[in-house]
Design a protein that fits this description.
The chain is mostly helical. The chain contains seven helices and no strands. The chain has one domain. Helix 2 crosses helix 6, helix 3 crosses helix 4 and helix 5 packs antiparallel against helix 6.
Length: 156
């Protein structure tokens, strides 16, 4: 008697799932690198011409609750420091949460944001939420730190 059709698919499906799970560290590294590049380059642009950055925060960007000078300084600092942590996989969840806040404030503060720009912010936010929920993966300093210093079970 032959096995039921679904049972015959179990072994190949398990192999495919194993291959996909083996790709998770690479996928998480690529997500960290992509998002980090976007925000780091944005921070460099702001830093390159600080007078224009301040003018934009005073005239265009309407960051709630913060004076424009403080919003510009905090936003630029976050866009320059947090991506470095993200790429290294060091304090990854902290960095992802910080960039998620920067991303949300940027999307909210732009009064005439186009649909395409809004979709970019949604995409970046989705990647950051994934990193927040699943962590940086095995190819990160966070993973090495946990294994070496805390002797905790390896994260997936």
């Amino acid at each position: 008697m032959s096995p039921p059709p679904l049972r015959a698919l179990a072994a190949p499906a398990a192999r495919i799932i194993g291959w996909l799970e083996a790709l998770q560290p690479l996928a998480l590294l690529l997500a960290r690198g992509y998002v980090a590049q976007v925000f780091f380059l944005s921070g460099l642009t702001k830093l390159r011409d600080w007078d224009i950055t301040l003018a934009l925060f005073m005239e265009e960007y309407h960051v709630p609750l913060l004076p424009p000078e403080l919003a510009a300084a905090l936003g630029t600092a976050g866009e320059l420091a947090l991506p470095v942590l993200l790429v290294l996989g060091l304090g990854t969840r902290f960095a992802a949460l910080g960039l998620l806040c920067v991303n949300a404030v940027a999307a909210i503060s732009l009064p005439d944001i186009t649909d395409a720009a809004r979709q970019q912010h949604v995409f970046w936010g989705s990647l950051l939420v994934a990193l927040l929920l699943w962590g940086p993966g095995r190819w990160s300093l966070d993973h090495a730190w946990v294994r070496r210093w805390w002797a905790l079970p390896e994260p997936r």
